[in-house]
Write a structure and sequence with these properties.
By secondary structure, this protein is α/β, with parallel strands linked by helices. The protein has helices at residues 31-52, 97-102, 105-112, 123-140, 146-164, 171-176, 178-181, 184-204, 211-221, 233-245, 249-257, 268-272; strands spanning 9-15, 20-26, 59-67, 76-80, 86-92.
Length: 278
């Protein structure tokens, strides 16, 4: 006996202050749930653009896959690169916009659109940046407070350190095999540590920039100049951050991090010193 699954597609256009959202629902969803999803996506784009500047694409398509049996509000998300880039999100049905807004996944995936697609060996850089920025966005837009911001970073770094014990080798090599090795925690949180170190270095030298402002500037001036997916995309992205900050902080850290076989040792004092919203 064959089971026929009917996929219902709904399309909706929602305007935010700067970017038009296009929503496609793949699966049945109630009108109430659609209202919650639309509120959540609109709020997420507005929060991200408030922190990182306006996206350099006029329309941002979302594909929403409702799931009745999900164990969390947003169990999975990914960016589908193209013209334009699209974000695919699975959501738990019957979840309020209030709960969805507190989930980190949407901010993480939108943050990926502020950097070019990087080569597999630089996945640590891409995932680390999106993870660090998701927390900055949530802090700046009052979704989490400064205590929660610090706690999330400390907890994540701890998971990364534990995962490193099971995934030996250079960060560059482990990044290339991230999925097969189940090394997401090491890859992601090594990248977060990279941007935390860069943030602290900028603060210590009195540089007026933060990671947030540099990524905003990169989106406006330079994103299209780096060829997505090219083997040199990571190096060129880092070179752009050095140029924008008028430092060599990023290239020096990059040369060190991609060959690292250990997990970065950042103290709680260093985490508590972060001032990413100057």
């Amino acid at each position: 006996m064959k089971l026929l699954v009917l996929i219902l597609l709904f399309n909706l256009m929602v305007s935010t202050q700067a970017t038009e959202i296009e929503i496609e629902y793949r699966g049945w969803i109630s009108s109430s749930d659609r209202q919650h999803v639309e509120t959540w996506l609109k709020r997420g784009v507005e929060a991200t653009e408030h922190s990182l500047g306006v996206l350099q694409q006029q329309t941002l398509p979302f594909i929403i896959e409702p799931n009745l049996f999900a164990s969390e509000p947003v169990p999975w998300g990914t960016v589908q690169r193209g013209k334009p880039d699209t974000i695919l999100l699975q959501i738990k049905r019957f979840t309020s916009s209030r709960v969805l807004i507190k989930d980190w996944t949407l901010y993480h995936e939108i943050a990926h659109l502020y950097h070019p697609l990087l080569d597999h060996s630089d996945f640590w850089l891409a995932e680390g940046l999106a993870t660090y920025l998701q927390n900055v966005i949530m802090l700046e837009n009052d979704i989490v407070n400064i205590g929660e911001f610090h706690t999330r970073l400390i907890s994540g770094l701890s998971r990364g350190a534990k995962n490193t014990l099971m995934n030996k080798g250079s960060l560059k090599r482990v990044s290339e095999q991230m999925w097969s090795l189940n090394a997401q925690q090491r890859v992601c949180w090594s990248g977060v540590a990279f941007f935390i170190e860069a943030e602290i270095a900028l603060q210590d030298m009195g540089n007026k920039n933060t990671i947030r402002t540099l990524i905003s500037s990169f989106q406006q001036c330079c994103n299209s100049s780096v060829i997505s997916g090219d083997k040199n995309s990571g190096r060129l992205f880092i070179a752009s951050l050095d140029k924008l900050s008028k430092t060599t902080i990023f290239s020096n850290l990059y040369a060190n991090y991609k060959q690292r076989k250990d997990f970065p040792n950042l103290s709680k004092t260093q985490i508590y010193s972060l001032q990413p919203l100057r």
